[in-house]
Every structure is written in structure tokens, then in C-alpha cells.
């Protein structure tokens, strides 16, 4: 994807840097991908969310410092197996990815590892990957619910050269920190360009439901 780095521009003081990157979320269904994005983008949480259909698209910016702003173009993908074949169209040319698992479901980490392996094999060779163990709030209130020890996931992340955070979309714990850490790792001189934008500059998600279409902000995913 073409690089874009803007110096100054309308509404920006001269000398400021603005970098734009494509980010994709992957992981098993119901691990809380959409809830993480909703917390990051709108600082909201909904206990009851319908599963994402295909994918949804949102954007959010992070000010790394007084002169540097990073904009994420975020693709939140569906976790259901029947949508797995669509994933490459979203992670293709992605600059970064968040692979999410549920710390209360042991099988979800295995699924996350499979996604990481696929990204490392088929995605952009320089892609920044973060591993997020979500639903930290559940084990904070009841430690017996934890199925995946922090040390186990952390060791895997270290061996696979991944960023690692345990997060809670419900309480917002480590959500902002997760995306900020990704932004800090990205090469600001290789920002993604505006290819594929619609007539109004917004990419639309893919919605496979009959006679409907996904729009910016159309999200889903269970809890958390």
C-alpha cells in the first residue's frame, strides 16, 4: 500500500507529522475483538453485541506526542469459521494487526497462534503484530476463570516477536496502551495511503446479510 506522510496541512501546524496505517483485528468468534475496537474508538462498552458479519471498518487517531499523530484505519473481522476465507482481503497490505484471544477460553489461544502463523507467512513481511488476551475483568473478579496463564502467553509472544497485553474492553484496562504501543512501533515514514477509499473517503465493511451493507461503525462481537 502506498506510503503517505503529511507535513502540516489544513488544520495542522507546520512541522507536525500525520501518519496513516491499516490495522486488522483477528481472532476466534466471541473473544471480544469488536468490543476492544468500540472501547478504543468510542470509549464505550456493550455487554450484548451481535457477532460481526464479514467485517466492519472504523478509524481512530492517537497523538504520540505534540507533533506526531497516527491514524488507524481499523478492520474488525468476523471470527466465525465461515468467514475465514475473507480474512486475507483484510490483512493484505495491513501495517499492523491485533490478534485477540479470551483468557478464560484455552482454545482461543490456539486459534490466535494459528492467525499469527498465517500473518507471518502471508501478510506484509514488516507487519507489527500484537497479541491481546482479552476479558481481564472476568479473572480479576474471579481468578478461577482464568484458563490461560499470563506467563504462558507472554512467553509465546516473546518467542514470536509480538507485542503482548492483557486487556479488558469492559473496564478499558490496557486498551489505549495496546494501540499506543502499536503506534510507537510503526515506521512513520511508511504510512498507508488512501487506496480503496469510497467516493466519500470511507471504506465500507463487507456484510454478507441479504440486502444490507456494512457501514463505518457497524460492529459486532460478543462481550468483551
Automatic annotation (TrEMBL):
<keyword id="KW-0813">Transport</keyword>
<keyword id="KW-0636">Prenylation</keyword>
<dbReference type="InterPro" id="IPR001806">
    <property type="entry name" value="Small_GTPase"/>
</dbReference>
<keyword id="KW-0342">GTP-binding</keyword>
<dbReference type="GO" id="GO:0003924">
    <property type="term" value="F:GTPase activity"/>
</dbReference>
<keyword id="KW-0653">Protein transport</keyword>
<keyword id="KW-0472">Membrane</keyword>
<dbReference type="GO" id="GO:0015031">
    <property type="term" value="P:protein transport"/>
</dbReference>
<dbReference type="Pfam" id="PF00071">
    <property type="entry name" value="Ras"/>
</dbReference>
<keyword id="KW-0547">Nucleotide-binding</keyword>
<keyword id="KW-0449">Lipoprotein</keyword>
<dbReference type="GO" id="GO:0016192">
    <property type="term" value="P:vesicle-mediated transport"/>
</dbReference>
<dbReference type="GO" id="GO:0005525">
    <property type="term" value="F:GTP binding"/>
</dbReference>
<keyword id="KW-1003">Cell membrane</keyword>
<dbReference type="InterPro" id="IPR005225">
    <property type="entry name" value="Small_GTP-bd"/>
</dbReference>
<dbReference type="GO" id="GO:0016050">
    <property type="term" value="P:vesicle organization"/>
</dbReference>
<dbReference type="GO" id="GO:0005768">
    <property type="term" value="C:endosome"/>
</dbReference>
<dbReference type="GO" id="GO:0005886">
    <property type="term" value="C:plasma membrane"/>
</dbReference>
<comment type="similarity">
    <text>Belongs to the small GTPase superfamily. Rab family.</text>
</comment>
<dbReference type="InterPro" id="IPR027417">
    <property type="entry name" value="P-loop_NTPase"/>
</dbReference>
<protein>
    <submittedName>
        <fullName>Ras-domain-containing protein</fullName>
    </submittedName>
</protein>
Amino acid at each position: 500500500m502506498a506510503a503517505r506522510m503529511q507535513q502540516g496541512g489544513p488544520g495542522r501546524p507546520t512541522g507536525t507529522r500525520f501518519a496513516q496505517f491499516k490495522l486488522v483485528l483477528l481472532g476466534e468468534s466471541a473473544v471480544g475483538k469488536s468490543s476492544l475496537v468500540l472501547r478504543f474508538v468510542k470509549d464505550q462498552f456493550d455487554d450484548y453485541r451481535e457477532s460481526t458479519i464479514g467485517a466492519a471498518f472504523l478509524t481512530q487517531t492517537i497523538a504520540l506526542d505534540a507533533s506526531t499523530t497516527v491514524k488507524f484505519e481499523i478492520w474488525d473481522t468476523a471470527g466465525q469459521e465461515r468467514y475465514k476465507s475473507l480474512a486475507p482481503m483484510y490483512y493484505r497490505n495491513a501495517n499492523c494487526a491485533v490478534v485477540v484471544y479470551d483468557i478464560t477460553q484455552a482454545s482461543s489461544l490456539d486459534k490466535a497462534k494459528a492467525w499469527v502463523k498465517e500473518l507471518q507467512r502471508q501478510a506484509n513481511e514488516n507487519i507489527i503484530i500484537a497479541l491481546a488476551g482479552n476479558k481481564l475483568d472476568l479473572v480479576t473478579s474471579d481468578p478461577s476463570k482464568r484458563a490461560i496463564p499470563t506467563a504462558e502467553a507472554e512467553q509465546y509472544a516473546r518467542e514470536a516477536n509480538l507485542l503482548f497485553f492483557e486487556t479488558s474492553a469492559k473496564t478499558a484496562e490496557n486498551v489505549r496502551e495496546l494501540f499506543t504501543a502499536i503506534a510507537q512501533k510503526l515506521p512513520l515514514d511508511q504510512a498507508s495511503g488512501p487506496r480503496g477509499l469510497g467516493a466519500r473517503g470511507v471504506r465500507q465493511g463487507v456484510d454478507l446479510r441479504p440486502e444490507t451493507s456494512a457501514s463505518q461503525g457497524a460492529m459486532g462481537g460478543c462481550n468483551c
